[in-house]
Specification:
The complex is a heterodimer of chains A (138) and B (159). Chain A has five helices and no strands. In chain B, 73% of the residues lie in helices and 0% in strands. Chain B contains five helices and no strands. Classes of the chains: A mainly alpha (138), B mainly alpha (159).
Chain lengths: 138, 159
């Protein structure tokens, strides 16, 4: 049974990689990685609300599922896991907050949105690398 | 509140109905997936081709890259979460030598359908048929996993 659980988690991590890849591509197609593009794209409140409503739930559950797998590894109660938890959840929260704040048209929020996006994705990719490492080698 | 490991799910008065209901929801998701696909991109080669690349004779515009990516992004999330749930329940309830093989095959096709879908839109139009094949194999496998877990869970003697 342990082997099959590990197998399910391994496939989930592959799905998550594909999901993160599609998220990055979508971000690039929709906003681009330039600050001006991000500011000019975020103009309508209803459009932003529609986009973010699904993401508010999705971010939380997706980050939680990935990170909670690490609780069953030797990383439990370590500083690495604590940092991963804080960085990923704060990255997700800031990305949503900055998207709403961008409606004011202040370019600083585009910087925050971009930084939050990068932080969220880098921490999730690192967490997925750790999950795969423990599933394969332990 | 105390958290304990339940040894026998099949005989547990609370866990068994809960797993039955989550299986019912997963089954609903599996039933509605082809309906959603049928109404969005289509479920046959020609319809998908028209959705992706348009049709000049019928004045149908192709899907925009953004709309396509949004569709794929949402589908990956839904299939990922449903397969994680289904795989975990299947691995816990069904005790058979073939569980590992079934998990590998169904999860592989669940994953490959998206790879082929992306390939067919961005690289080779002819990959649409391969995408459809992998989609149907995944659907059949996931339905088998769902139904066999349900049968196995309810085959046990009640307390």
């Amino acid at each position: 049974m342990q082997k099959n659980y590990n197998l399910s988690i391994f496939f989930f991590s592959l799905f998550a990689l594909l999901f993160i890849g599609s998220s990055m591509t979508l971000f690039y197609v929709k906003f681009g990685f330039g600050l001006e593009q991000i500011v000019t794209h975020s103009k309508s409140f209803s459009g932003t609300l529609k986009l973010l409503f699904a993401h508010i739930f999705g971010f939380g559950i997706f980050i939680f599922v990935i990170i909670h797998f690490l609780l069953f590894t030797p990383l439990k109660d370590t500083k690495t896991l604590t940092w991963l938890i804080h960085l990923s959840f704060l990255g997700g929260f800031l990305e949503i907050f900055a998207s709403f704040a961008l409606l004011s048209g202040v370019e600083l929020f585009a910087v925050i949105k971009l930084l939050a996006f990068v932080t969220l994705h880098v921490t999730l990719l690192y967490a997925l690398f750790l999950v795969q490492k423990f599933v394969i080698y332990h | 509140m105390r958290f304990v490991i339940i040894k026998d799910l099949k005989r547990d008065r609370s866990m068994r109905p809960m797993i039955n209901y989550i299986l019912a929801f997963t089954l609903l998701f599996l039933v509605f997936t082809p309906i959603v696909l049928y109404t969005s991109i289509g479920l046959d080669e020609s319809k998908i081709h028209t959705t992706f690349f348009g049709n000049e004779e019928e004045f149908i515009d192709p899907i925009t890259p953004q709309a396509f990516l949004e569709f794929v992004h949402t589908q990956i999330f839904l299939v990922m979460m449903s397969m994680l749930t289904l795989s975990a329940v299947f691995a816990r309830v069904v005790q058979s030598l073939h569980v590992t093989a079934i998990l590998c095959i169904v999860n592989s096709f669940a994953l490959l359908q998206f790879v082929f879908l992306l390939f067919s839109y961005y690289l080779y139009e002819s990959m649409i048929i391969v995408y459809l094949g992998s989609f149907y194999i995944w659907m059949a496998g996931a339905l088998f996993m769902n139904i066999s877990t349900f049968l196995e869970l309810n085959r046990a003697k009640k307390l």
